[in-house]
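name: query_chain
kind: protein
chains: 1
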Amino acid sequence: MISPNPKPRRKGWLPRSYSNTWLTTLMVAFIVLISVSLSILFFWRSLYLPELKNHARYLTSELQLINSVNKDWQGRPEVRQWIYQHSHVVVVNNPSDFPEVADKPFVSFFTDVMQREIGAQLGRPVEVYFKFKPTPQLWVQDSRDDSFWVREPVVYYSQYSPTLLVLFLIGLPILSLLTIILLARQLNRPLRYLQRAATNYIRLGHATTLPTQKGPTEIRQVNMAFNRLFTTLNQAQKERTIMLAGISHDLRTPLTRMRLTAEMLPDDFFREADL
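structure:
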């Protein structure tokens, strides 16, 4: 029993028919995505993360100072008040002014880093909360004494531009993709001209001359080669037509003579041939 021939395996991961424009766009989109991700990772690990940890250590020292003041100068409220006024942070003792802590997905990523760093420095849990409105403020509370919060106005945060962040994260990839799509269409346009010229030659027997004076050097060289190919094919077609016309003429002349001779023979000649 003869086993059927196995189907040949298709090599490569690309389909048999695919668009070069979309393939180029997808490849560039992947490269842009990787570039943006690496840029964000670089700025985070090299700039933002060290800055957050340094700021967390600064807040740790402020918390330690406030705790020491509350413990050592408990009987001297005027000294405590003087230290509070000359500190770089604000001590909030009124429970009605305490913030309502709520989860914020994006900001929690940054506050968790500071919370872990402050907790590691103090050796106990702390609560870090960022409040946007009415003004950006950073709130810190020590788990040892929950009777007060430390509030730090984040002055320079309000100067950050969310528009620039959105343009970097979203606008830059979109602009890159649009640019690549336009470039790919521009590069594929000469190929469509070649396809149109070849189709016209197949259907009509002649093709338009492709431009060879403008455009990229590679495309002009390809157009010149196709123009020479079409000229050679046209010349071969003309020579074939002339050759067939000559052969037809050479064959038609003896046949015409034989036909005339047969028509001019008398009828008796054919009767004798039949007998």
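note: The chain has two domains: 20-160, 166-266.
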